[in-house]
Design goal:
This protein is mainly α. The chain is 74% helix and 0% strand. Helix 1 crosses helix 2.
């Protein structure tokens, strides 16, 4: 059985993707991955 929350999340992102365009959504997802990935910084 599919998780209902996951289904809603998928539907929501597909809805936004249709509205703003696939390229924009892919760029957004890449930016979010970068933001959530810990990066080593020399300070």
């Amino acid at each position: 059985m599919v998780n209902p929350l996951e289904s809603i999340k998928t539907w929501f992102f597909e809805l936004i993707e249709d509205a703003v365009g696939e390229k924009t959504m892919k760029k957004y997802q890449e930016e979010m991955k970068k933001k959530n990935t810990p990066q080593s910084q020399d300070e």
